[in-house]
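pipeline/complex-builder :: batch 7 item 3
reading input block
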Amino acid sequence: MLSERDTIVACSTPPGRGAISLVRMSGDKALSIIQKITKNKLKKQISVVKFPLNAGLIEKCVLTIFRAPNSYTGEDIVEISTHGNPYIVEEVIKKCLDLGAKIANPGEFTLRAFLNNKLSLDQSEAVKEVINANSKASLKAAQNSLEGGLRVKISEVQDKLRETRVLVETLIDFSDEDVNVYIEEVISKISEFKQFFASFKEDMKAYGSISNDVKVVVIGPPNSGKSTLINAIIGKKISIVSEKQGTTRDVVTSSCLIDGIRFVFNDTAGIRKTKDKIEKEGINLSKKALKNADIVIYLADKENDFDKLPITKNKKNIFVLNKIDLTKKDAPVGGFAISAKTKKNLKLLKKALAHNFLKLNQEELLSINIRHLDLIKKAYKNIALISPALVSSNLELVAENLRNCDELLGEIYDPISSDDMLGKIFNKFCIGK
Amino acid sequence: MSVDIIVIGGGHAGCEAAYAASRFKKKVLLVTHDVSTIGQMSCNPAIGGLGKSHLVREIDAMGGLMGVCADKAGIHFKVLNASKGPAVRATRSQSDRILYSNAVKSLIDSEDLLTSVSDEVVDIEVKNGKATGVKLKNGEIISAKKIILTAGTFLNGKLFTGEDEEEGGRKKSKSSKILANCLRSLDLGDARLKTGTPPRILTSSIDFSALEVQPGDSPRPCMSFIGSSDMHPKQMNCFITRTNKKTHDFIRSGLDRSPMFSGRIDGVGPRYCPSIEDKIHRFADKESHQIFIEPEGLTSDEVYPNGISTSMPKDIQEKMVKSILGFEKAKISQFGYAVEYDFFDPRNLSQTLETKSIENLYFAGQINGTTGYEEAAAQGLVAGINAALSLDDKDPWIESRGNSYIGVLVDDLITLGTKEPYRMFTSRAEHRLLLREDNADQRMTPYAHALGIISNDRWDIFQKKMSSIDAETQELEKIKIDPSAFGGKNKSKQHVLTVLKRPEAKLEDIYNLIKRPLPDKGVLLDIETTKKYAGYIERQNKEIKKIKKYENAKIPREIIFSEITGLSNEVKQKLEKVLPKTIAHAQRIPGITPAAISLLLVHIKKEQSVFKEKIGS
Ligand SMILES: Cc1cc2nc3c(=O)[nH]c(=O)nc-3n(C[C@H](O)[C@H](O)[C@H](O)COP(=O)(O)OP(=O)(O)OC[C@H]3O[C@@H](n4cnc5c(N)ncnc54)[C@H](O)[C@@H]3O)c2cc1C
Ligand SMILES: Nc1nc2c(ncn2[C@@H]2O[C@H](COP(=O)(O)OP(=O)(O)O)[C@@H](O)[C@H]2O)c(=O)[nH]1
Ligand SMILES: [Mg+2]
C-alpha cells in the first residue's frame, strides 16, 4: 500500500555495472537528506558533489534537483548520478535510508505522480509502456499516450456521444417545451454513432495489437511448411523443420520487426486427427493460440486443404499456398502463392501482414492495453443494444445505455456530471416558460 | 412563550415542515407574515411536471401535504412523457389557486399541536452557537428547541418592472429586510438570485376562438397515492398561442430599459426558466416561442400566460402582449416582474438541513437556492422530520441518491451548492430507472409508517397494493400463453412474465387474452415495469451496492483536511467547505479527483486505527 509522508528512494537504472547509475529520491525530505549528506546548499539545479560513502570512501557524483511541484512525482526530487557500480549504488541508497528515506516499491514514483495529479490514469499506464516498448510503433504509441493522446481521442468519442445524449435528455426532461427535437433525429444520430464507434473500436484494437505486439498464428496441415515459412520470415532457425508429420508439438513463438511493428509468430502443430497424446496437447495449444491471434495465416500446399481447416471469424485471415517451386499454383482469392523454401513472393506476404497497421496514422498511434479494450468493448455493447424500437418505446432505457457508455469510456480517465449535461442542453436549446 | 419547534414562513417549505413536525406530536408554532397567504402559489398555479412530480409523489409517500392538496385543487391533469417508459413519466396538475391554499390551510388547522400566527420574525436568538428562539416585530421573544427558517424569496426581496423598483417578497407582500440583515451578520454565506413572473391577463379579454385547445388527460391521473379523481373539482382547458416577429420587435425596442440588461439586477436567474427578453436575446434566430395559457382557477378571471415571464417596462409589456394571437384586446391585470432575493449557500448545511455553524437552526426552501414549490416542499419535509427526530434523540432521516429524488436534491445542494436557482430534472438522478413516480410509496411509505407519521388509511392502501402485486405476480407465474400474439417467434407456449419482456407486450393486453379481471392500475404498472426493466434494475442496484461500500466508509469527525499532505490547496478548501461525512460524499464534490480520494483513504487509515470499514484499495 502507499505510504503517505515517506520520502522514497530507489535505483532507477538497471542493476549491474555500467558507465553510470542513477539513484532517485522523492518526497518532503529528499532535499534535506541530500543536504545533510553532501553539505551542499543545492542552489543550482545541477551540481557536482562529494558523496561520502562508508569507511572514508568518497564518491563524486552529479545531483539534479527538481523542486515540487515541478517534478515527475510532484514532490521534491533529487537524482544522484554515480559511477555504474552496484556497490556504490547500494552505499548511496543506504546513506539515504539512514536519514529517514524508505525504499520505493515498484512503480511508486509513477503512483505518486498519479496521486499528485501530475499524470492521469491512462498516462500513468503509458509510462510503463514507454519503458517496455520494443518497436518503433509501440514506442510512438506509448509516447503519444503519455502526452495525453488517449484522453484526447476518448474525449472526441465522448463529445460525439454527448451530442446524442443531449438530444435524448432534452426529449426526456423538456418534452413539454417546443425544442424541436424529434425521435427520428435521435434514431439517425444513434445509428451514425454506432458506425463511428465500431470503426473506433477496430482502430483501438489495432492500436492494442501494436502496443502488445501483433500476434500471428500459422495454421495448416502437417508438412505444409509452417515452420519453414516462419523461419523464412524471421530469418533464423527456430522451429524444427522435418519431413515426419507432426514434429512441432509445442506452440513455438518468435518475433521480428516488419516496418517498425513487432510481430510475434506462433508455430503450431498441424491440425489433424491424431491419437498421439503429446500431439493432441499440441493441437489444443494451437487452438488457444488461435483465440489470442490478431492475424491467422492458413498455410497449405494443396488448394483443397483449406476446406479442412477451422476458419475463424472476426480475425484477419490470410490464405497462403506454399511450395510453388515444386508445382505452379495460382494464389487463392485474396491470398498468396509462395515458396517458403526459395522465399518467392515472401515480401508480398510480409507487406500484407503489416498492411492493416501501416494503414493507421503512424503519428497518432496510441498505447492501448487490455483494460482499455475491455472498457471500450463494454461501452460498445451498450450502444449495440439500442434498436430503433427501443428509442420509440423506452427512451429512458436508451438514455441509460448512453450514460453507461459514457461512463465506461470515462473510466479510461474521467467521468462527466449530470450538471455538465444540463449545461449543454441549456446552451443548445431555448428552454423555459 | 415556549414551543418545541418554530417554523418561520408559511410557504410550501414552511407548511410541510410544520405539518410533518406536528405529526411527531411536537408543539409547533408557524409564524408567517399573514396566515391568510398560507399555501399561496407565488407564481404558476401548477404542481408536478418533469422531475417535480417525482418529488411530489415522495412527499406524499411520506404523508406530506402537497399531493393531497393538488388533488383537491386540481382543475387540469396531464401525464407528460406518456409515450416513454414509466421511470420518466410525470404527472402535472393545474390548480385552482384558492382551492389549493384552502386545502393546505385546512390540513394545517387539523393538527391540534400546530398553531399558526400572523407576525414577522425580525431576528433569530443564538446563544453559544445554538439557536434558542426568535424575536417578533414587537420585540417579544419566543423560545424553541428547534427553528426552521423558510423565508422564500422574501429576504431583502426586490421587485423590478422596467425602471421601477420596489421592496417586496412577491407582489402585494413586503420583504423581510430586518431579518435578512440579522442573518447576514451570522455569516452564513449569502448571495443573490433572481426569478421572474409573467403578466396576468383577464380571461374575459382573450379571444379563445383563435387558439389551440389543450384538454386534460382522460382518464385523469392523480397526484397522491391516496387520491382519486372523485376528489378533483370541475376540470378546465388550457390553450396554446405563440409569440411572433412583432412581439420580438417590441421587446427588442425596450431592452435598454430592462433591469436585466441595464445591469440593475446582479442576481443570477435560472437558465431553464429565462424571461422572454432573455430568450429573444440568446436565441435570436428563433422566430416564435410557445405560450401555454393556464387558468388560475374556477372562479378567477385571470390566466397565467406561461412562457413570457418578463420584467420589461409596463408600456412594452402592454404592446408585446397585444401583438400575440388571441391577446389583441387583452387587459393586463398585473404586470410581470422580476424578483431578486438573498439565498444562503446550502453547502453550509448538513444532510438534515441543519446549519453546520448554528445548532438547532434549519434552512429549507428557496432560501437554499432552489426554485419551485416541489423543491421547497421536499426540503421543508426533510427539515421538519429531522428537527422532530432530533428532539426525540432518534437517528436522522437521510435519503440516499439511490432511493429518492429527495436524496438527490439534498445531496446536490449540500455537496455542489448552486450558482443559479436549482430545479429538479430527472437527468439529475443517476439511478433514474429505480426512482419512478409510481413506486415512491414502495421506496418510502414503510419508513414513514415506522416513524408513525402517516394515517392508517394510507398504510392500508399501501398494504393492499403490495399484497395485490404479490398475489397477481404469483398467479401470472403459473400461466403460459402463446407468445406469437406479441411478436414472439417461439411456437411453444411461454410463461406470461417471459412474454412480458418483449417490447411489444403490454400486461393489460395479456390480462385480456387470459380473460383475467384487471387489478388496480398501480399494480399493473408495477408488475409490468419490474419485468421490462429487469436487466437495467439489476445493473443499477449493482452500481448502488458499489457506491454503498464508500457510503459506509465514514470520514471521522476529527479529521483535519488541511493536514493531509499531497492534497492541493484547492482540494483541501473544497473538503473543508463541505465537510463530507463519508468517502462517497467526498467523491461527489466537484474537483475531487480519484487521486485525492486515495490520499484521503490513506490518511484516514493511518490516522485512525479505529477506521474499520473495509474498502478495497
Ligand atoms: C415572482 C416569482 C416568480 C416565480 N417563478 C417561478 C417559476 O416560474 N417556476 C417555479 O418553479 N417557481 C417560481 N417561483 C418560485 C416558487 O414560488 C418558490 O420556489 C416557492 O414558493 C418557494 O417556497 P418557500 O416555501 O421556500 O417560500 P415562499 O413560498 O416564498 O414562502 C415564504 C413565506 O415566508 C414568509 N416570511 C418570509 N419572511 C418572514 C419573516 N421574517 N417572518 C414571518 N414570515 C416570513 C412569507 O410571508 C411567505 O409566506 C417564483 C416565485 C416568485 C416570487
Ligand atoms: N519444395 C519446398 N519444400 C518445402 C517448402 N516449404 C517447406 N518445405 C518442406 O516441407 C517439409 C515440411 O516442412 P515443415 O516446415 O516442417 O512443415 P510443418 O509441419 O507445416 O511445420 C520440409 O521438408 C520442408 O523442407 C517449399 O516452399 N518448397
Ligand atoms: Mg512444423
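note: Chain B touches chain A through 55 residues (CB under 8 Å).
queue -> next item
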